[in-house]
Amino acid sequence: MFLCTAANAEGERNTSDQPWWKQKKIRYFWGQWNRYQSEINQDPRGEPHVHGPDVLNPAKYLKETETLIKNLGDVGATVFVRYRPGYLAGPMYEENQARMAREHGMRYFGIIYLHTFAAEAKLFCPDRRISVDSEGKPYGHEVYGLLPCPLYEPAYRKWLFEPTLDAARSGLVDGLQMEWEPYGVRSEARLCFCDDCFQTFLSGQGETLEDLPPKDQRHGWLEQGDHLEGFNDLFAERRAEMFRGFAEEVRAIKPDFIFAGYDMLQWAPEIAPGLHHPDAPFFHIDNRHQSEAHNRTWWQSLHTYCKKHGYIRIGGTNGHILFGGQPYTAVSASKILYELAIAASDGYWVWLEQELTPDTWRTFWLANRMVQATEQKVGDFLLQGEPDTRFASVVEWSGDPVFDDMIVQRTYRLNDRHLLHVNNVHTDWPVRLRLRFPRLPAGSKWIVSDPIVEATYVRERRQAVWTAERLAEGIVASLPKRSELFVELNPTSQEEIVASGSVLFTDEGETMPPHPVGEPFTPSSESDDDKPSLAVTVTERMGYDGSDGWTIGNAIHTIGADGGETKRLRQVKGYLWSPSFSPDGQKIAFVHDTNGRGQIYVLDPDHAGSRWTYNSSSAVAPTLPDGSRWVNLSNNDYCDRNPVWSPDGKRIAFVSDRDGDWNVYVMDADGGNQRRLTDDPGQDSQPVWSSNGKRIAFCRDMGDDVDLLVINADGTDEKVVVRYLDDVWDPAWSPDGGRIACIGVDSPNENALLVVDLATGKVKKVLRMASLRGPAWSADGKHVAGVHGGGQKPDDTGVFLVDVDSYAPGFNVWGLVGGLKEEKNRLASAPSVRSYSADPPRDWTRASWYSKGGGSPRWVVKTFSSVKWSPDGKQVAFSSDMSEDGYFYVYLAPAAGGGKPKRLDATRSAWPNQIDWRP
Ligand SMILES: [Zn+2]
Predict the structure, then answer these.
(1) Can you tell me whether residue 67 is helix, strand or coil?
(2) How far is the CA of 131 from the centre of ligand 1 (A)?
(3) How far away, in angstroms, is 149 Cα from ligand 1 center?
(4) At 50, is the pLDDT very low, low, confident or very high (cuts 50, 70, 90)?
(5) Burial class (CB in 10 A: 0-12, 13-18, 19+), 630
(6) What is the Rg, in whole angstroms, of the alpha carbon atoms belonging to the chain?
(7) Which of 40-44, 207-211, 402-406, 408-412 comes out lowest in average pLDDT?
């Protein structure tokens, strides 16, 4: 591209001085290689699971292996992982294989399976120290072998360390894949309460006991003394230390030996820090996006977690899923691999246990070429660029949070050049975006281009130079469904350049026709016993009405808790969000979000809209009369969202992108005196007031993780109150002001309901489950209700309720903290629905990219959201699509539990309702 010659020369790719895993995206191939052609699957003994060179014709085996490895070389494989058949199968590498892999330009990894551990430990260490679980029993199984204490080094040495040292000494092996997939009793013991583990903890604490408690009482003893977390931490530290010592021995032989863990972060996340070294990073072979809970898209799966720890993360999939002939997703197998490598991780892995057909090879060839093509254009950014936290902000044009969730944004910096990578993850819908670049130096000038199509973004008269100020306003771009966009910024010292090559015209920070301002009003003070008690959003129609890009008609209704009379307060094109009653119940604040602009309005619920009675056979509400009383408090060209009333009703806190990125603002209740409270490069969201109105809590996304902060309502004394393992979200301030509940990523596999005591700063884990959202306090401050999802089984999403002071989660057999102890903690739940009758290989909930982003979901995970307590504390309202007709409705459930949730038929909506109770 002629315009950027200077910049490109400056940043010319030079990968040779980089370690191999940074030279290109990793194509990581592993599988049961001896099944790759039907001929060598012929087992003379007729035992389908006994494979290996020893039972086959060795010459033929060698020839087939050579063909396989040559083909993998042709499709760009960078790592070949050995298949190690059966148990006790000798060294973890095969000399011929290793040499062939290297001849064809690949790295060669050995492999070990956790499920061989129990048998080997039993065989090689008959006197091993046996593990003790929380009930005082050994982990493992009499037949397969009782599992040793997970800190009993000799068992690991015999099974894992010694063969690995042999492999490293051979000079033929570049790494080891450690398969940590659990096979029940043949896996590894977890949190262990044996004499050694227990005694070590006690001495560390300076505790002395005359006699150790009996094995079956140790867990209880720790729990009573509030020691469980400390015990857990010590276990994790000692395990990391044991594996660190081992990794150091291996690196003394081969300094860049790589340890790759499959499923390891899910089942034993404490090992990876021990194996990781900055000069030989831990490879996380991630399968989580195939089966994770539906609270995050697969594009984000463990991304920040791995980046923060410096791990290489490789996403991938099994051949039978990729090629199984089932319509998992509306994109092709090669495209899935491409997306994994470019957008979601540091490469792709494929596990193969099937015959490899010409179609399989063609898919790999194509995926490789697609990745190569992008590497050639922007590989320097993707491989060597620094993440450029929040250098760009992206606002989805229609204002639909479902679409917002489907936008994935990554930013990179390389010297003085920038790259923005945006993905529309959605398989069904295109999106339109405003891309803003708020943090460029004042007065700087830029050439903006699409490096993939080698075209330059121009303004009027093909003018290619953009000022920082214009880029802060943004450019507008459309993305087709399931597509990506790269935008590159290169600095220029020129004042003006008329582009003569390919150009892209763009709307500069375009905004659509202004939002109507409405009429000011004085809220009614007249008493009315008949005032409806709930405000809800309802999506009333979808479709194209022929005038412009509108697709959604959205309304705010008030409705009685008995479900009877409904009042429609506003109906508009675009989206209405966040209806929120003022503390005196006289006003409702809400957001009208469309055209890249969210505007905060208030209306008078008692002098707006029209009453009607819901009738399921003709559920058409009357048209709104003119003269409704409502007013636009925002009145700007930017996006304001999340209005929340101060407890005295005099102010409204909200977030806005008006100054470039998302910050927290406060205004008076009439829209006056708008001022910014926070000013930082992070993305601030979800403001909530303390009960005395003096402080505001909010979440801040700094790119690597999301923290919970508190700031005084006058903008002073900002501080972090929860910085957790990974992200923290959904803050809820307790009614007495002393605590904040929120949700955090607790392990790579689970969320936790956290309660932070603001006086002590102590964070208590109240509940752990696969996914949690939207905690809400009861008015008496004793209970928290919210939304939970299950694990991989397609059965339990719903609404939980826990007593935050007495509820303590118990340990299950894996030593992980379990979920809901009792049925009475479940106010509502719904099974997921199998969407078609084809027989999937496993009954997992294929969430996120299959159900949300995919064209043909196998399981539809039922959604619950917007949990809100009634002012009298007797009921909890929530929105769900658990109804058989698939629509969202508002439901009311008795907070005492035990009752079936009551559906309010008049709230039927195509999207989740947002709910507030009238005070
Ligand atoms: Zn132990």
Answers:
(1) helix
(2) 5
(3) 4
(4) very low
(5) buried
(6) 29
(7) 40-44
Band the pLDDT of 506: cuts 50, 70, 90. confident
Give CB contacts under 8 A, 24+ apart, made by 413-417: 413/385, 413/386, 413/387, 413/388, 414/11, 414/380, 414/381, 414/384, 414/385, 414/386, 415/10, 415/11, 416/491, 417/7, 417/11, 417/381, 417/488, 417/489, 417/490, 417/491
Kindly give the distance from the C-alpha atom of residue 181 to the centroid of ligand 1, in angstroms, as a whole number.
Answer: 21
Q: Greater confidence, 490 or 510?
A: 490
Predicted confidence (pLDDT) at residue 792 exceeds the cutoff of 50: no
- The Cα 683–Cα 598 span in angstroms is 16
Residue 235 CA to ligand 1 center (angstroms) comes to: 9
Question: Which residues, in sequence order, are bridge partners of residue 763?
Answer: 756
Burial of 500 (0-12, 13-18, 19+ CB in 10 A): exposed
Answer whether residue 815 shows pLDDT above 50: no
Quick one: which H or E segment has residue 222?
helix 218-224
CA of 277 to the centre of ligand 1 (A): 26
Cα(164) to centroid(ligand 1), Å: 24
- AA letter at 765: K
Would you call 539 helix, strand, or coil by DSSP? strand
Count of positions (residues) in the chain:
919
How far apart CA 906 and CA 867 sit, in angstroms, is 18
Residue 682 structure tokens: 């992070």
CA of 192 to the centre of ligand 1 (A): 4
Structure tokens belonging to residue 211: 């006699």
Instruction: Kindly give the distance from the C-alpha atom of residue 200 to the centroid of ligand 1, in angstroms, as a whole number.
Output: 10
Q: pLDDT by residue (tens digit) across 830-884?
A: 776 654 433 343 433 333 333 333 334 445 678 899 999 999 999 999 999 888 8
Q: Quote the pLDDT of residue 379.
A: 95
197 CA → ligand 1 middle, Å: 4
Residue 96 neighbours by CB distance under 10 Å: 15
pLDDT of residue 355: 78
Q: Is 443 left (phi over 0), alpha (psi -120 to 50) or beta?
A: left
Tell me the CA–centroid distance for residue 335 and ligand 1, in Å: 46
Q: How far is the CA of 193 from the centre of ligand 1 (A)?
A: 5
With beta carbons less than 8 A apart as the criterion, state whether 588 and 603 touch: yes
Average pLDDT over residues 217-223: 92
The mean pLDDT of 475-489, rounded to a whole number, is 92
Residue 809: φ, ψ to 5° = -70, 145
| Token pair 């508190």: residue | 710
Ligand 1 centre distance from Cα of residue 216 (Å): 14
pTM of the model: 0.83
Q: How much distance in Å is there from the Cα of 217 to the middle of ligand 1?
A: 15
pLDDT of residue 92: 86
Residue 194 CA to ligand 1 centre (angstroms): 4
The H or E element spanning position 100 is: helix 95-103
CA 204 – ligand 1 centroid, Å? 15
Task: Provide the mean pLDDT of the chain.
Answer: 82
How far apart are the CA of 88 and the centre of ligand 1, in A?
A: 25
Cα–Cα distance for residue pair 89/80, rounded to 1 Å: 19
